[in-house]
Amino acid sequence: MKKLLLLGDEAIAQGALDAGLSGAFGYPGTPSTEIIEYIQRNPEAIERNVHRTWSTNEKTAMEEALGMSYAGKRAIVTMKHVGLNVAADPYMNSALTGANGGIIVTVADDPSMHSSQNEQDSRFYAKFALMPAMEPANQQEAYLMPRLAFEISEKYNLPVLLRITTRLAHSRAGVDRLEVLKENKLHFPENPNQFMLLPAFARVNYKRLLSIQDDLVHESENSTFNQYFEGSDKSLVIIACGLAYNYLMENYSAGKCEYPILKIGQYPLPKKQIEKITSECDEMLILEEGMPFVEEMLKGYLGNNLRVKGRLDGSLPRDGELNPQLVRKALGMPELPSQKVPEVVVGRPPALCVGCPHIDTYKALNAALEKYGSGYVFSDIGCYTLGYLPPYNAINTCVDMGASISMAVGAADAGLFPSIAVIGDSTFGHSGMTPLLDGVISKSNVVFMILDNEITAMTGMQDSQVTGRIEDICIGIGVEKEHIRVIVPLSKNHEENVKVIKEELDYNGVSVIIPRRPCIHIFKKKKRS
Amino acid sequence: MKKDIILAGVGGQGILSIATIIGYAAIESGLNLKQAEVHGMSQRGGDVQSHLRISDKEIYSDLIPHGAADMIISVEPMEALRYKPYLSTDGWFITNTKPFVNIPNYPEMDKIMDEIESFKKHVALDADQIAKDLNAPRSMNMVVLGAASLFLDIPFEKLEEGIKFIFGRKGEKVVESNLKAMKAGRDFAEENKT
Ligand SMILES: Cc1ncc(C[n+]2csc(CCOP(=O)(O)OP(=O)(O)O)c2C)c(N)n1
Ligand code: SF4
Question: Residues B25-57: pLDDT tens digits?
Fold first, then answer.
């Protein structure tokens, strides 16, 4: 069969589909979004009616996957790294409930924060939850890992975390497919109390989780994704995790490195191989994308006799993603001759598109706030975060999804006036409804602006769960009808919009203003589908 | 055979179509390929790049190392310069000269042209103008691809097949415009390579 040319994300999707997937659950987030997008347009997935609609947030996605697993079928959950913080409660507990049908929790990390607020490393979550994890080095492994992950997940009744990072998620290469496995049939868990985490049961489940840890280490020791390559020069051994292996081999054009290499793709770390290499060599270089996870573990808190080089001793930078030249330097090889960026080159930061509805919203908001000065606008994550940049300079915070509303409530309760939140429609659905309820209950003096462009624009035009429902949601939560105001952000409505915002600033209570106009790219998306 | 190519431009200028066509042609020619793209934040009018690697051997890194690129192909002149550290000392520098000005501090064109001309091996062409003259203003990216095609070591017909493959569903006219644009770019490069 001809190779498929797939992004790392797409390879995971195809791999999961071919491994008997029944449902994909997730919330968009760079660099994970293309996994579910691929399944949404894949003819076989459509034919099989694999679940593939977006969830409201990562927590609901994780729980929906748990439900599918309870019912005996195979599910994958997808999210970006910070999404796992949102899903952390069901995720951590899923290690205790375990799985019935296989579950893969796929998390895409974004070292260097290309489009994220932080660069946390999801392997820590796997260790935290005592779950096995996998980390592909290339697109073919990204295709193969879901198959093994489902197998392990069902063998040990435990979810498996699959970690991918930006460069592999968004890089294409040829992938060979395997035969397609059948989906599971509906079936209850053998133990009817498996998903019942009352303390008495939870304690039992936790002991079981602890008792299988050695087995998981054996799985890693025997995994084809953990490979030892002999080397003639034993003065140094290299541990290369996930795609760091590629950056290492890139520096050996003949494809042969003189040092022994342990390539890691499956965790917990394979003990036998680690013991072997530590006994043979006295210096170790650890290459890993993200945080010094393996390095810290092998070094130990007090350091041991072995010299461990990596991100902690300065051989590699402590933060940011790796690349071939950083690894080259860590290997002590001379740099390739290369030139500097010419001085004339200036930055070209992303900006709101010409004609974007958020522009008119910010112009109106700025005008309404003129007499108060700046410092009163709590915002959130999405295209509208670009309103921080000049010429708008319209917002003051961006922390995590939903935090605009909660922070505005907290600040208003501290006495700040005015206290305003600016949040996108998809972000509101994700995490804005619960703090809105807090605001209503504490009768905070706040104005919440829900910027409804009828789409999840930042991550590339996914449906927004709350489209067509925002007013009803706000009424249901208890916002007074006459303080739910819809405006149309267009320059011809500027004066009128400023007036509406001012009126609601003057109202002592919870106001919701909904500037509603579709993202200008929405038509493209409609045309595509 | 190995070609490491940096593709550069501004979000929305069509560098991914260039990558797809070269990629198609490479795969059809039985070569290995890796292509790293930029998604997300950088697409809102920000700078975008793609690392395209083609080889008859195994390709390891998804990113091209500094100093290793055989070619920079750019649809925007300042963006082309941004990736200079990637270019090997005898690599080809192929760029559109028409600036895409969406920032207040865009540098003076003279300074940019001086830099472009300092490359030993370069092709600089006003691809926007060439595409306009052909009555195919939206095919500027294909003009640039055409100019680069001369140095790709991939049969030109395979690139033409690539255009038919990716634009086929948009109709015969779109395919024709793009084919014409690519040919015009190639002709320009034949006459003006330095
Ligand atoms: C927990 C978490 N999940 C996902 C993301 C990725 N993300 C950033 S912005 C955004 C969507 C924003 O959509 P919306 O609120 O509708 O604003 P728009 O971009 O359409 O203006 C998403 C999904 C994130 N940063 N954090
Ligand atoms: S993609 Fe849509 S919402 Fe985002 S900046 Fe552009 S017009 Fe605005």
Answer: 998 899 999 999 887 655 678 899 999 999 999
Torsion (CA) A496, A498, A499, A501 in degrees, nearest 10: 130
Rounded (10°) CA dihedral A396, A398, A403, A409: 0
Rg (CA), chain B: 15
Query: What domains can you pick out in chain A, each with its CATH number?
Result: 3-211 (3.40.50.970), 227-330 (3.40.50.920), 357-528 (3.40.50.970)
Q: Is A351 in the pocket of ligand 2 (CB under 6 A)?
A: no
Q: Is the CB of A357 under 6 A from ligand 1?
A: no
Cα A101 from chain centre: 23
Low-confidence residues in chain A, pLDDT < 70: 1, 304-305, 524-529
DSSP per-residue letters across B71-108: EEEESSHHHHHHTGGGEEEEEEEEEE------STTPPP
Q: Is residue A510 classed as helix, strand or coil in its secondary structure?
A: strand
Residue A471's φ and ψ, nearest 5 degrees, are -60, -45
Cα–chain center distance at A200: 33
State the Cα–Cα distance between residues A40 and A9, nearest whole angstrom.
13
Mean pLDDT of chain B: 94
- Chain A residue with CA closest to B110: the answer is A344
Considering every ligand atom shown, identify the ligand nearest to the alpha carbon of residue A517 and give its number. Answer: 2
pLDDT per position as a tens digit, A215-271? 999 999 999 999 999 999 999 999 999 999 999 999 998 889 999 999 999 999 999
Q: Chain A residues with CB inside 8 Å of B60's CB?
A: 245-250
Residues with Cβ within 8 Å of A491's Cβ and at least 6 positions away in sequence, in order, are A360, A363
CA B11 to each of CA B48, B97, B143: distance values in angstroms, whole numbers, following the listed order = 6, 17, 18
Count Cα atoms within 13 angstroms, Cβ side, for A240: 28
- Which pLDDT tens digit goes with each residue over B64-123? 999 999 999 999 999 999 999 999 999 999 999 999 999 999 999 999 999 999 999 999
DSSP strand pairing (B32-36 vs A484-487): unpaired
C-alpha A190 chain-centroid distance: 32
Of A170, A348, A383, the CB nearest to B36: A170
The CATH number assigned to the domain with range B2-192 reads 3.40.920.10
The pLDDT value recorded for residue A1 is 67
